[in-house]
């Protein structure tokens, strides 16, 4: 039971960052109908920007996290404006090829800029775990959990209570009607891609100090982000949140009770089983009829 509680805490920490990844990816797909293959590389970008801020520029750790997130948003806005906006009326195959090319450019750019050697991001938190009853958690992981929860809460509040969030929800549900009602679709697309990219960069910035940072770190994470979106239900924001936590719990419990070598395999096995039973995912998005 003590081990189960410990893995539950660790799975919650991991699931929070996975939820950020899933929400960012499904938001872009739901609003723009774009399959964002750069999502994993934006995750790696956030980790590297945190490393640059802390290790190279000697900035405060917390300031580096915030700057990495903002730079991720800026990079996402640039990708949408330069690559996606001219292809707004192109078919989905052409858009996918462009995004795959952009992902390869980002990954090779990281390899060229930082080299192939994995790097460690210093952090100000002590290495001694906090012990709460039978559960022990490193202060860094607790910080990651709290910030992830704050970002998730902030995202949902912004989506529900701001004009930008209302415009994004309207475009998510029916872009044609939203445009007729005066919503600037181009501006909404840029904001959507920037926010989705910022969430991916924030996840990388948070998990970068927990794990090692390398140019290929976005490969598996990108696959997991797509898996989370499909697991939760394509185009469903609540489903992406649930799918992120579900994947985090499965990976943590599989790594703790079976083997750490197969934790990723168990996560994808869960997805296969759920989709075999419920092909539309856990929380399928509602579609307008008529």
Describe the protein in words.
There is one protein chain. With 290 residues, the protein is an all-alpha fold. It contains eleven helices and two strands, in the order ααααββααααααα. The protein has a two-stranded antiparallel sheet. The chain is globular and about 55 Å long.
Q: How would the blueprint of this fold be written?
A:
Elements: H1 2-32, H2 39-56, H3 61-84, H4 92-114, E1 130-132, E2 135-137, H5 139-161, H6 163-173, H7 175-180, H8 185-207, H9 217-232, H10 237-257, H11 263-277
Antiparallel strand pairs: 1-2
Helix pairs in contact: 1-5, 1-6, 1-8, 1-9, 1-10, 2-3, 2-4, 2-8, 2-9, 3-8, 5-6, 5-8, 6-8, 9-10, 9-11, 10-11
The biggest sheet, with number of strands, parallel, antiparallel or mixed sense and barrel status, is: 2 strands, antiparallel
Number of helices: 11
Order of helices and strands: HHHHEEHHHHHHH
Q: What structural category characterises the helix and strand content? A: mainly alpha
Distance between the terminal alpha carbons, to the nearest Å? 52 Å
Estimate the helix proportion, in percent.
over 70%
Taken from the alpha-carbon principal axes, the silhouette is globular
Instruction: Walk across the major sheet and give the strand order.
Output: 1-2
| Rg value | 19 Å
- Determine the strand fraction and express it as a percent band: under 5%
């Amino acid at each position: 039971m003590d081990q189960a509680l410990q893995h539950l805490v660790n799975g919650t920490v991991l699931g929070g960052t996975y939820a950020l990844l899933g929400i960012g990816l499904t938001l872009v797909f739901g609003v723009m109908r774009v399959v964002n293959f750069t999502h994993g590389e934006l995750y790696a970008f956030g980790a590297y920007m945190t490393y640059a801020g802390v290790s190279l520029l000697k900035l405060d750790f917390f300031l580096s996290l915030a700057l990495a997130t903002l730079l991720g948003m800026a990079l996402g806005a640039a990708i949408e404006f330069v690559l996606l906006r001219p292809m707004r009326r192109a078919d989905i195959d052409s858009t996918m090829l462009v995004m795959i090319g952009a992902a390869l450019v980002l990954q090779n750019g990281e390899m060229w800029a930082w080299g192939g050697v994995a790097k460690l991001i210093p952090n100000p938190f002590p290495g001694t775990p906090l012990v709460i009853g039978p559960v022990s958690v490193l202060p860094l992981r607790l910080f990651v959990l709290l910030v992830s929860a704050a970002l998730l809460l902030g995202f949902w509040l912004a989506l529900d209570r701001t004009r930008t969030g209302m415009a994004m929800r309207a475009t998510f549900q029916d872009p044609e009607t939203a445009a007729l009602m005066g919503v600037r679709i181009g501006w909404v697309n840029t904001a959507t891609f920037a926010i989705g990219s910022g969430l991916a960069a924030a996840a990388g910035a948070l998990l970068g100090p927990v794990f090692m940072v390398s140019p290929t770190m976005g490969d598996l994470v990108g696959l997991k982000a797509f898996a989370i979106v499909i697991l939760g239900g394509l185009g469903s924001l609540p489903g992406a949140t649930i799918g992120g936590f579900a994947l985090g719990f499965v990976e943590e419990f599989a790594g703790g009770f079976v083997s750490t070598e197969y934790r990723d395999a168990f996560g994808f096995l869960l997805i296969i089983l759920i989709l075999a039973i419920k092909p539309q995912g856990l929380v399928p998005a509602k579609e307008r009829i008529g």
